[in-house]
């Protein structure tokens, strides 16, 4: 990249910003961050600024916001590919691909259509039924929540708060708060064990 500085007769070559005809590359100096700043509304007040920074110290990519007189990090992708929102500290090593933090309430919203479902699937495969080996979901059409293991729904909570285990059909009207059906196990036996 060629830039002008000083007088109109002076041109400077910048080896940290290059264009090869296909790719525009920005590089920080040795041990330095590389930053792109974005400003809307002419950048005339604090709330207008965002920046994306490749950090030299830990090779992370950070997105920061400048809204109250200082930069605050909002999102980070670390060198392992983990995504961190609202924090720079990863979660437990068994569940650190996505970490979300907030000093007040924290959460995730799944918003689906009025006749559709929202779900989280647990999988060890990239095709077939093993893609939903375990799952939990909420069906907007009947406002029921369900939990599954081994690719089948095992527990269901309907819109009235009734708990159904091994079935999607409630019991008798005068005794339907909890319905358990063990017929799917092939033994013909159903029961509850309380062990203390």
Explain what the structure shows:
By secondary structure, the protein is an all-beta fold. Helices cover about 0% and strands about 35% of the residues. The chain contains no helices and 16 strands. The protein has strands at about 1-5, 10-15, 15-20, 25, 35-40, 50-55, 60-65, 70-75, 85, 100, 115-120, 135-140, 145-150, 150-155, 165, 180. The chain has a 6-stranded mixed sheet, with no helix packed on it. A hairpin with a 4-residue loop joins strand 7 (about 60-65) and strand 8 (about 70-75). The chain is elongated. The N and C termini lie far apart (about 75 Å). The mean pLDDT is about 90.
Strand order of the largest sheet: 5-6-7-8-9-10
The count of DSSP E runs of length 2 or more, i.e. the number of strands, is 16
Percentage of residues in strands: 35-45%
Q: Give the biggest beta sheet.
A: 6 strands, mixed
Write down the Rg: 27 Å
- What is the H-and-E element order? EEEEEEEEEEEEEEEE
Q: How many helical elements?
A: 0
Low-confidence stretches: none
- Helix coverage percent: under 10%
Sum up the overall morphology in one term. elongated
Structural class: mainly beta
Give the N-terminus to C-terminus distance in angstroms. Answer: 74 Å
Average residue-wise pLDDT:
88
Topology:
Blueprint: E1 2-4, E2 11-13, E3 17-19, E4 24-26, E5 34-39, E6 49-54, E7 61-66, E8 71-77, E9 83-85, E10 98-100, E11 117-122, E12 134-139, E13 144-149, E14 152-157, E15 163-165, E16 178-180
Parallel strand pairs: 9-10, 15-16
Antiparallel strand pairs: 1-2, 3-4, 5-6, 6-7, 7-8, 8-9, 11-12, 12-13, 13-14, 14-15
């Amino acid at each position: 990249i060629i830039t002008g500085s000083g007088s109109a007769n002076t041109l400077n070559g910048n080896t940290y910003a290059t264009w090869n005809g296909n790719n525009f590359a920005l590089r920080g100096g040795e041990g330095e961050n590389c930053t792109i700043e974005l400003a809307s509304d002419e950048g005339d007040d604090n709330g207008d600024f965002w920046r994306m920074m490749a950090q030299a110290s830990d090779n992370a990519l950070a997105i920061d916001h400048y809204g109250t007189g200082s930069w605050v990090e909002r999102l980070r992708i670390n060198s392992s590919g983990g995504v961190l929102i609202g924090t720079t500290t990863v979660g437990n090593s068994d569940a650190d691909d996505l970490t979300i933090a907030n000093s007040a309430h924290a959460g995730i919203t799944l918003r689906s259509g009025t006749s559709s479902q929202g779900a989280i699937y647990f999988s060890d495969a990239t095709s077939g039924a093993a893609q939903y080996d375990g799952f939990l979901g909420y069906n907007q059409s009947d406002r029921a929540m369900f939990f599954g293991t081994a690719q089948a729904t095992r527990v269901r909570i309907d819109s009235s708060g009734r708990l159904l285990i091994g079935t999607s059909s409630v019991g008798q009207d005068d005794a339907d708060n909890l319905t358990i059906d063990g017929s799917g196990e092939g033994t013909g036996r159903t029961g509850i064990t309380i062990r203390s």
